[in-house]
Specification:
The protein is of the alpha/beta class. It has 18 helices and 15 strands. The structure holds zinc ion.
Length: 482
């Protein structure tokens, strides 16, 4: 029996085009999804957009665009990036989808009302529009400003629905400390446990429609729209039919969330509480990645160190052609740690491309297939292999970087074997022995292509087809950078 599995990225906020951190999260999730597919699991992989809220409403207004049009435009840039990076999702959620998503989010809201966990309260607090978040005094800097936006939050006095998050603190603590909901890496588990030890506060769960109109209407109260929690987090279940009789609870119970470290509290405290309150199982695991800096600094327009994924793709278009997306996939997965912050600059991007793709995988393929096409008469279809233990173990701990490093090591070893055995010379003095070594190398190359499949699927397929057809690439897979 195949295991049913759901893999999710966070849904990206639809106020701007995707940045390099999005690209990293998408290819990480896609690689894990592809690995599970290889091992025979029944994987459903979702990604998408979080498209509501005051910030988007304002940005659309500033650019004189109807809100729906504004989010459609940003959604398109994410869909394009996914396509260029071969991100093979099964469903792309959009929270502005009035049918599937509204239906499920409203069903979840009603479930929470029925459970007695939502109530209306008068509320006076500080609110940062930039963060779209209510702030406590401890969240602000010494000038009383939001430390992220350096603006004073506005005082908001309104009547909202509240979700009684505080009463779930102990249950969530139990689930996370026992690893029933497993947080990767351990340092992030420690972080959320410390937060739970301090106790959770109830959270505002709606906004008055008079202030924010761009949102999902609260059921049975046309003066309020949902705040981000029920609106956005619910995407993970509405995507697989929550609110209809098609909801796949078995799949839901085996979910892997892949998120950035800045939204750990949402996913490891608020979301589990909502699920417990509505009687749903919790996800199995949350994989938390870090941020990408450039030259040791946060990327910013002022510093001029912003790495735009679309620009990097453009740079690889001429040397790598159709494989430009594969180049960016490889670099992100090989250079950025799976669970910690990483650093990338244009120089390290180029160096990684040259060392591992132009000189590494690309050159290895050309050398072996040239010998094969010259000296052997037909291609082969090698037998299935058992995945190497170290590779499998790395994937089982969701360390995609370590798994890819294993493959890179295999590439180097095979390259070294060509140098030491020199079959292109040997075949002239001992034809049979020379051919045997070329055959052996071809099988090894094929097996490397198999291991590369989750990371750079198009490259993997190409290499496999050369081995099967006994042909060589007409031009290098990855040409040198100009
Ligand atoms: Zn802020």
């Amino acid at each position: 029996m195949k295991d049913k599995h759901l893999i999710t990225t966070a849904i990206a906020y639809g106020n701007a085009a995707p940045h390099i951190g999005h690209a990293f999260e998408f290819v990480t999730a896609d690689t894990i999804s592809r690995f599970y597919k290889i091992t025979g699991e029944d994987v459903y992989f979702i990604t998408g957009m979080d498209e509501h809220g005051q910030k988007i409403e304002q940005k659309a207004k500033e650019s004189n665009t109807p809100v729906q049009e504004f989010v459609d435009m940003n959604a398109k840039s994410f869909l394009d990036l996914d396509k260029n990076l071969s991100v093979d999702y099964d469903f792309f959620v959009r929270t502005s989808d009035k049918e599937k998503h509204y239906l499920g989010a409203q069903a979840l809201w009603k479930k929470l009302v029925d459970a007695g966990t939502i109530e209306k309260r008068k509320y006076k607090a500080l609110y940062c529009i930039g963060c779209e978040e209510f702030k406590r005094d401890v969240d602000l800097n010494e000038k009383g400003e939001c430390p992220l936006h350096l603006t004073k939050p506005e005082i908001v006095e309104e009547e909202n629905y509240f979700f009684k998050l505080s009463q779930y603190t102990n249950q969530i603590k139990e689930k996370i400390s026992s690893d029933e909901l497993k947080i990767y890496p351990q340092s992030r588990k420690n972080e959320i446990m410390a937060l739970l030890d301090r106790g959770l506060e109830d959270v505002s769960f709606s906004r008055p429609k008079s202030k924010v109109s761009w949102g999902i209407p609260v059921p049975d109260d046309d003066t309020q729209v949902m705040y981000v929690w029920c609106d956005a987090l619910s995407n993970y279940i509405t995507a697989i039919g929550y609110g209809t009789d098609k909801f796949d609870e078995e799949r839901w119970a085996n979910t892997t969330h892949i998120i950035g470290k800045d939204i750990l509290r949402f996913h490891a405290a608020i979301w589990p509480a909502m699920l417990i309150a509505s009687g749903l199982p919790l996800p199995k695991r949350i994989l938390v990645h870090g941020f990408i800096t450039s030259g040791g600094q946060k990327m910013s327009k002022t510093l001029g160190n912003v790495l735009d994924p679309q620009e990097i793709l453009k740079m690889f278009e001429s040397p790598a052609g159709e494989l430009a997306g594969e180049a960016l996939r490889f670099i992100l997965l090989h250079e950025i740690p799976s669970f910690e912050d990483g650093d990338l600059t244009m120089d390290t991007i180029k160096a990684s491309y040259t060392a591992h793709l132009a000189n590494g995988i690309g050159n290895l393929t050309s050398r072996i297939m040239k010998m094969s096409a010259t000296h052997l008469s037909e291609g082969i279809r090698p037998d299935e292999i058992v995945l190497p233990t170290d590779y499998k173990k790395a994937f089982e701990s969701y360390d995609t970087k370590r798994a890819l490093e294993f493959v890179v090591k295999e590439v180097k070893e095979l390259d070294g074997y060509i140098q030491s055995s020199e079959p292109f010379k040997l075949v002239k003095v001992d034809e049979e022995k020379g051919k045997e070594i070329i055959k052996e190398m071809r099988i090894k190359l094929y097996n490397i292509a198999r291991l590369l499949q989750p990371f750079i699927p198009k490259t993997s397929d190409l290499i496999k087809s050369y081995v099967k057809d006994n042909s060589m690439p007409e031009k290098p897979l990855f040409n040198r950078l100009a």
